[in-house]
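REQUEST
  id: r-88c1
  op: predict_structure
  target: tRNA-dihydrouridine synthase
  payload:
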Amino acid sequence: MPPIYIGQVKVDPPILQAPMAGYTNYAYRQMVREFGGAGLQATEMVNASGFAWLHEHEAEHPDRLWGVKEEARPLAVQMWDNDPATLAKVGERLANELHVSVVDINFGCPVKDVTEKAHSGSYLLKFPDRIAQIVERVVKACAPTPVTAKIRLGCSRDAINAIEIAKVVESAGAAALTVHGRTAADFFRGTADWNRIAEIKPHLKKIPLIGNGDLDSPEKVIEAFRRYGVDGVMIARASMGRPWLFRQAAAALRGEPVPPDPTAEEQRLTMLRHYELTCARFGEQKGTLLMRKFACNYATGRPGARTFRAMVANVFTREDFFNVVERYFPREEPHDVDIPPHVYK
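RESPONSE
  id: r-88c1
  status: 200
  body:
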């Protein structure tokens, strides 16, 4: 597959790492970067109002922007809010002060704290005119840094309006559109509807369409390009404990043999490096607590994973963490198991 361009930003290969709240911090991004294969990485999504307050009070940038100034490019930062002026102000700072490669606006988050309380994320899919105002203001504020948008199919199955929103986003000047193949009401239940994503492509005149949802293998990435005609793909939850998935998908796109999963020992060492990076930023106590969920993801699908998850969920210190990893992290190679449907989305 050829690279895609988001404005002047070359994304090669056209495989993007999704922004995921609570997960895609610098430590995670570094693990993905060391394996390779992601053409564009993204931070966790940033609350624009919170970011603006911190900036005005000369406070430290939020942890969600940990590492952004120094790390390799290209790199995207996703933000959310419902006020065009606030989003424009924060977008300008991201572009001109942090020099990020891409500023992304979230119109897809289905979490109630974002939708019902803040009237942001996927809530805004009900209001195409508001989305147009937001995108137009942010594009103008960030120029020449490209601005993108991420959406869902609609608020619910009986209110799918992704084609309308896609047209609005492009007309307002966005440089790319990512579509998750579920509605907000679906949350992460069921399966992503890639046929609905494909229906959007003919309605975009010049910007790339990036598909997202249920991409948990190189084979599914290939299918997304061949069957559904997207220009790029975005991998999300399936990579939380498998940062090597991007490398595998990129090899498949090049027509090369897909590298095997790392051995159990290599995966253990990868997880421990992830732990060290996290603790270097947050200290032993907070870093250990944060790594509980990542450690659980690294064990998913392996014999003994349930026992390991139960044990690592109760660690509080570095010594506890290493003892549990040494005793309980699955040593055997993976075999065919039934993976809970909520895991790989």
